[in-house]
Design goal:
mainly alpha; 3-stranded antiparallel sheet; 6 helices; about 5% strand; globular
């Protein structure tokens, strides 16, 4: 098995063309089994193939396809987060006033604005930076994971 670097936060597993996300952080570690297999492959002394550099036109088409796919999941992401919030109100975890204050939080407003422009990476950063006590680490982790699962939507 071998891999090719992409320079876009994932590697391509050449055996089947699978795109393996390689983004991780201390706060939100990547536990994807394909990523862990890639790490083991690296630790065994293997080296991935270098990044294939697309032409400017090829890159434009790749970007257009990526953002088209992001636009397709944008409403799903926003409705998932809204339903998650309403679930907390219905369960009594949050009050309507608390939900309203959350929606007025500058970092959450930024996250929503970034999602509206299909900048899911920046939305995840805004959520991670949010200091409102309503967003526990567990909630942040779930929201960020949901966004990260859609970062590299490439047909």
């Amino acid at each position: 098995m071998s891999y090719q670097l992409t320079g876009e936060g994932y590697v391509i597993r050449l055996a089947d063309g699978a795109k393996v996300p390689i983004t991780t952080s201390a706060e939100y570690p990547n536990t994807n089994p394909d990523y862990l297999a890639y790490l083991a492959w690296l630790e065994a002394g293997n080296t991935p193939s270098p990044v294939a550099t697309p032409t400017a036109e090829e890159q434009r088409i790749l970007d257009q396809n990526r953002y088209k796919r992001r636009a397709e999941v944008q409403a799903e992401l926003m409705s998932w987060m809204a339903a998650d919030n309403m679930g907390r109100v219905r369960s009594g975890e949050w009050t309507v006033a608390q939900l309203t204050s959350l929606m007025d939080d500058p970092d959450i407003k930024d996250a929503q604005a970034y999602m509206a422009t299909l900048s899911f990476e920046l939305a995840a950063q805004s959520i991670a930076a949010a200091t409102t006590p309503l967003l526990t680490q567990s909630i942040k982790a779930a929201w960020i994971a949901k966004l990260q699962s859609n970062l590299f939507l490439i047909p």
